[in-house]
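FORM 7B: Structural annotation worksheet

SECTION A. Query
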Amino acid sequence: MKIKANGIDIEVEDTAEINPQDLDAYTRPAVLLIMGLGMQLVAWPPQMIEALVDAGFRVIRMDNRDIGLSQHFDHLGKPNILWAGLKYKLGLKVVAPYTLEDMAQDALGVLDVLGVERAHVVGVSMGGMVAQRVAIAAPQRVLSLTSIMSSSGAKGLPQAKPEVTRVLLKRPESDAPEAVVDHYVRLFKAIGSPGYPVPEDDMRERILRGVERSFHPEGTLRQMLAIVADTKRASQLAHVTSPTLVLHGRADPLVPFANGEDTAARIPGARLVGFDGMGHDLPPEPVALMLDELIPHLQAAEPPAPYLATKVVA
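SECTION B. Predicted structure
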């Protein structure tokens, strides 16, 4: 469903809407899932959604601004990522069309519209950065924070391997679905989990579903610029008060494990769990291992009694 949140159109999927006659669905503790750079809400593994619902949670997913079926911002122009990256390395200010803080306000706006006072906030990759921003901006709204394969954004942390960066910055040979799928297969092979390789046929099928739903590469570039421009988050993580879990693959070639270590070290009381053989993707085996950590983390931070009985009219 599409809702108006933070003044823009955001596409949302809410498990409480699947069976609107079940009022208990609206009183379950809510888990807000925030996806990563250029990725749509359909990128969350069904395995994770089902496990969270089975554990008693209401699961809310959203397309971030500029991606998927949410509002696009093409009027803001196509950013020059190489120039922005050079400015960042030189210590010069990078100005983005919008910020990760804006994206955090989108997430809070979604909770507002859905009538959710407080939620568990879970983000992966860039979504982890946005989730961190939510916890910084509105600690009273965050039951718990989970940052997956993400980073604090602090200067000096290990960056992606050069060969991964080259693939990430390349464009598909054309906008034809086959060319786009070929491009993302190369990318996901470059960043994927060496210990848990995904069969190429499965990968192609999943990527094609996403491409057929929406393909918006300029939105990805603007999101990338928002990441580069967010230079103060690392020092602000000390103010996070939500119970925090940091999950990270030890074989991540895009956002190396040291980024997860740094994130956990900066957030008071945060717990870090690393996974051998896991890269920068969500294959079934690492997802199962993460759920073994995630669900107890969420349950430990649950409110003592149902705190929500509001049904939303979108």
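SECTION C. Observations
The domain at 2-300 is CATH 3.40.50.1820 (Rossmann fold). Residues 306-314 have pLDDT under 50 and may be disordered.

SECTION D. Sign-off
Analyst initials: ____
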